[in-house]
Amino acid sequence: MVLSTTPINFNQPVHATLTGPRSEETYKVHLQNPADLAVDLYDLTADLDVQVLDSHEKLILFFGADSFGGANEGTLAEHADFMEYGFPVADAGLTLLKPGDYLVKVKSKTPLGMSGKADYTLKVSDKAVKPTHVKMGHMGPKDLAVYRSVTSSAADIYDVTLDEDTDIEVSVLTADGKDVELNVTAKGKPDKKGKKPEDDLFTAKKVKEKLTSGDYKIKVTGEDGTRYLIGITTTSKIAELMEQNQPATAKDVPSEAASMSVN
């Protein structure tokens, strides 16, 4: 089935609304030369995700999965640099997207219903190697945001507002093993500098701190062209995810069932 698509121009934001029962919109872009596609989805009034597909409607993956970037929870802004991931074919282990047509799909995480609606702004760029500035919005105690990007000559900045005092955890992973610097800053408050975890070979830098409510800037700097994945969440959200992934134990089984299993 051929998707119905809407043309979109590079670097020109599109303000649009999804209305029920239509829960997604697909845009078409064309790359003249090999490039990354940098996609920003913001000003959200509902929980929307973004995906990039090739002309055969095949998802563009990252680290072998499509769930890293572009699927944040709630109305947190989305940002992702979409490229093909190739095992050590190139020195950096990553290749640019080939010239051709690509599809950018904006979709609601849950059905909007007949009278539902969701506003958003979408911007697509074919030049990802430039400073990234994402205005994330408000983060609550159970929110999780993941962004994928590439460093340039200036710091990438993620602006976030914490609605309440929060134990926050920010982790940066790089696809090619390169190092980066991570700092969490706020006006009138001491900077929080990221450190390399001793027990985690894959994380380049991590900040794990109790932060008071307010506005913060999360900054990532590194050698030009370093591809990275940044996760921003809270310790309570991590605990919730870990509990969901734990196998059932005796305490999770009703007493009658537990006694039967023992016998």
List the defining traits of the structure above.
mainly beta, five-stranded mixed sheet, disordered C terminus, Jelly Rolls, four-stranded mixed sheet, 263 residues
Give a verbal description of the structure.
With about 260 residues, this protein is mostly beta strands. It folds into two domains: about 5-125, Jelly Rolls; about 130-245, Jelly Rolls (Sandwich), CATH 2.60.120.380. The chain contains two helices and 19 strands. The chain has helices spanning about 235-245, 255-260; strands at about 5, 15-20, 25-30, 35-40, 50-55, 80, 85, 95, 100-110, 115-125, 135-140, 145-150, 155-160, 165-175, 180-185, 190-195, 205-210, 215-220, 225-235. The protein has a five-stranded mixed β-sheet, with no helix packed on it. The chain has a four-stranded mixed β-sheet with strand order 1-3-9-5, with no helix packed on it. The longest helix has 10 residues, at about 235-245. The radius of gyration is 20 Å and the shape is globular. The protein starts with 5 loop residues before the first strand and ends with a helix. Residues about 85-95 and about 250-263 have low confidence and may be disordered.
